[in-house]
Specification:
With 98 residues, the protein is α/β, with parallel strands linked by helices. Helix content is 37%, strand content 20%.
Length: 98
């Protein structure tokens, strides 16, 4: 099952985009961005168990508008389902999402 980790981070860009616009699988992120995310979130055991190809990270501006974030999350879920070829995903909320 493909998993989305949902968390808030501010003042960082992933692959040159604001962090809440990261529409990539973890496996497709640069080494720098992977290191940053793993420094912020305890995901190493999950990656060891499930693999990078099954992890997607949705980060958002935690001081932003929650309605906008909810709409972005919905769009991201649709992206992951299409990218993964799956009709379901797991969501792991962290921070305001948890």
């Amino acid at each position: 099952m493909h998993t989305i980790v949902f968390h808030g981070i501010n003042d960082y860009e992933i692959d040159g985009k604001p962090d809440h616009m990261a529409y990539d699988s973890f496996k497709d992120l640069s080494k720098r961005d992977k290191e940053y995310i793993l420094d912020q979130l305890p995901l190493n055991k999950y990656i060891d168990m499930a693999g990078e190809e099954n992890l997607y990270v949705f980060s958002y501006a935690s001081l932003g508008n929650m309605k906008d974030t909810a709409e972005e999350l919905y769009d991201f879920i649709q992206f992951v389902k299409e990218d993964a070829g799956s009709d379901k995903v797991n969501i792991v909320p962290i921070s305001q999402g948890g």
